[in-house]
Design a protein that fits this description.
single chain; about 270 residues; mainly alpha; 13 helices; globular
Amino acid sequence: MLLPRRDDAVTCEARDTTRRVGRTFAIACRLLPRHLRGDVYRLYLVFRTLDDLVDDGDPAAPARISAVEAWCDGGEPSSRETEILADLGSRHPIPRAALRDFCGGMRDDVEAIPILTEADLDAYCYRVAGTVGVVMAAILGSRGNADAEAAALGMAMQRTNILRDIDEDRAQGRSYIPSHTLTRFGTPEPGRREDLLRDQIGRADALYDRGVAGIPRLRNGRRAISAAAAMYREILRQIEREGYGRRPGRAVVPRRRKLLIAARRGVAGPA
C-alpha cells in the first residue's frame, strides 16, 4: 500500500532531522494541525540542509544555494531542496522572494561578510531567519499580510541563538555581535558582558513582542508558533537567571521547563 505524502520517506527523514537537531522546534511541531505537520517538517529539512552545508564549509554549498536561487527565479527543480520546494509549492503559496533572501543570508555566511552595525545584524537576521518565518506563515496561512510579524519573530529567534552561542562562536573564530556594539560594550568575556547582554536581550525582546502580536492572524498553527516563541524566549530569561554570562557556555532551558511552556500554550487557544 502506498503511504500518503505526509508519511513518505522524505517526510520521515525530515521529521527525524527536526527531532534530532531542532529539539525545541520539534516540541512545538507536535501542536501543529496534522494535515500541515509533514509539510512543515519538509520545509525545515530544506532550510536546515542548506544551513548545515554552509556551517560545515561543504564545497557543495554554493551550488546547492544557486539551485534554490534559480528555482526562485522561475527555473525548474534541479536539486533535492528544489524538488521539495516545488512539491510544497503545489499546495502552498511559497514566497520565492523570501527564499531568495534566505539564500542571500547563506551567501553572507559563506563569504564571512562582517557585521558592523545593529542595522547590519537586523538585515542578516532577516535573511537567515526572518525569511523562514515568512515562508512558514505562507504554509500556515494568515488573515491579511502577516509577513512583517512573522519576520520579526524569526529575527528574534536568530538574535536569541546568537546570544546563546556567544562562547561557541568565539571558539570557532566567529562573532555575530556587531563590531560597533562590541566597541561600545567591550569584548564579551564571561563575567564582563552583563551590559552587552542586557542591551541585546532588550533588542530581541522587542522583536518577540512584534512577532507574537501577529500570531492571532495565522489561520493554522497558532498554538505551535506561540509555544515555539515562548520556548525560545525563555532562553533569554535563562541567560538572565544565570547572571548574564557570568560563566562561559550555553544557557540551556531544561526540557521539563520547555514541555511545561509548550503544554500551557497547547491549551491556551485554537490551533
